[in-house]
Amino acid sequence: MIQTLDILLYIAMGIVLVILVAGIYALFRGGEFGRSWSNRLMRLRVLVQFIAVLIIVAIFWLRGVFSG
């Protein structure tokens, strides 16, 4: 179970990185594309970061439960 969560954490962190780079690109590109996508991508990044934090909390909790 913990190994599965570790893999999910790495996937979530990779998704956060991709969304962050895309959001920064949209922000600096400007124009109509920047206005419509930069804010949307940054909100999506915050959501995925929240999911990654929940996975981290689950990993710590499960390691504490199974180690003691």
From TrEMBL:
**Any one Pfam family match given in the protein's UniProt record, by short name:** HIG_1_N
Residues that span the membrane, as ranges: 7-27, 47-66
Q: Does the keyword Transmembrane apply?
A: yes
Keyword Magnesium listed? The answer is: no
Q: Which PROSITE patterns match?
A: HIG1
**The entry's keywords:** Membrane, Transmembrane, Transmembrane helix
Cite the InterPro entries for this sequence. Hypoxia_induced_domain (IPR007667)
Residue ranges annotated for the HIG1 domain, each copy included: 1-68
Q: What is this protein called?
A: Twin transmembrane helix small protein
Recorded source organism is Marinicauda algicola
